[in-house]
Amino acid sequence: MASGPSSPHRAIQTIDIYCDKSRAHWSERLGITDEQLRQAVRQIGPRASTVAAHLGVSLRG
């Protein structure tokens, strides 16, 4: 199956807790502290949509 602009599948966004820029971006976007982000990723995993759902936050802008 081809992936591209016409593909119905969205790219999976992941949170890299080892990257300062990634942590800063996701902490701000989710409205949580760096430590809260680290704990959520450790508990839930790095998929941004799963972490957001766990926190009750929408990723839609």
Automatic annotation (TrEMBL):
Name listed for the protein in its UniProt record: DUF3606 domain-containing protein
Which InterPro entries would you find in this protein's record? DUF3606
Source organism, top-level taxon: Bacteria
Cite the Pfam families for this sequence: DUF3606
Q: Source taxonomy lineage?
A: Bacteria, Pseudomonadati, Pseudomonadota, Alphaproteobacteria, Hyphomicrobiales
